[in-house]
Amino acid sequence: MSPSKPSGGRAPRPHYGKARPHAGGAQGVVRPAPRVSGSAQQKHAQWLARATDAERSGDAVEAELCRQYAEHWFRVLQGQD
User: What is the rounded (10 degree) CA torsion for 65, 69, 74, 78?
Assistant: First the structure.
C-alpha cells in the first residue's frame, strides 16, 4: 500500500459540480424563480411588464434581467415568422 493513501482504502473524491450553499447571498434578497407561461408573444409581453415593475420599485438589476428575458423571447418570435 502506498503511503499517500489512507489505510481505509480509497481517497475521498472531490464533489465537482455540486452546488454549495452561499453564506450571505445578495443581502438577504430572494428572487422568485423566473417562470412565465404562455406563447412566445405572451412571454415577451410579460417579461417587459416585469421589467417595468422592477424599475418602478427601484431594482435596476432585476429590471435589466427581465429585459434580457424579454429580448430572448422577442428573438424567438422573430424566428417563428
Answer: 130
pTM score: 0.55
Cα distance from N-terminal residue to C-terminal residue, the chain: 67
The CA distance from 42 to 46, in Å, is 6
d(CA 48, CA 41): 11
| 60's grid cell | 435596476
Out of 10-14, 22-26, 62-66, 70-74, pick the least confident: 22-26
Helices 60-79 and 40-56 pack at an angle, to 10 degrees, of 160
